[in-house]
Amino acid sequence: xxxxxxxxxxxxxxxxxxxxxxxxxxxxxxxxxxxxxxxxxxxxxxxxxxxxxxxxxxxxxxxxxxxxxxxxxxxxxxxxxxxxxxxxxxxxxxxxxxxxxxxxxxxxxxxxxxxxxxxxxxxxxxxxxxxxxxxxxxxxxxxxxxxxxxxxxxxxxxxxxxxxxxxxxxxxxxxxxxxxxxxxxxxxxxxxxxxxxxxxxxxxxxxxxxxxxxxxxxxxxxxxxxxxxxxxxxxxxxxxxxxxxxxxxxxxxxxxxxxxxxxxxxxxxxxxxxxxxxxxxxxxxx
Length: 286
Prior knowledge:
21% strand; 6 helices; 286 residues; four-stranded antiparallel β-sheet; 23% helix; alpha+beta
């Protein structure tokens, strides 16, 4: 056979071999990345009936717009959305949040239908943010994870109905107050006790609150940084705050020179000198 013919035959054989190779790779790759499957409750427009069907996950958006229901329990809480296929434990009104399902406990004050019964914050003793209660107005209702939270019980913070001062220092600048650095919800009372014990100055923000007897209650205190932030968040429902960009003291010390304040108009929090004069609003726990 002439040399040119041999070269042409060899080249053709190489081309054929090269063409087959991608097919083999694609097949292997396909096995590794098989499309994810999900079950759905699908409406068959031909038979006008609902039936379960398995589809590729990538096809779900097309089915969703037609009113089909996913049956794969997306949040893993053991409940599925209501479906006409009679599939699974139904009634989940939010299948993207495992904390929301028919077996959940209703959490008071979060404005969510936690147990999917069509009602929001039911059986909460009619307590809501802004309600007049135990000497002031409800400023915050404890949520799961908050110190002092007890399931099926309603606890939180009550704000005094008005400011006690618009011109008070935090006190004892250049002196570190041991124990008064708590910032979380639930730490304001101990902060106040520690400030009063460590700073003898009269008329300071913590003493104004700690010595307060109001509407039959004497357990008021200067709120911590995070507690004060809840007063800011719910300031409209609580009422009585000084309008505009006025700062309020928290009981949370930043360092020996400064403590945390919050601007009630914008919500911004700053660490400012303890010798400065700002507004004071007391709270108590219930």
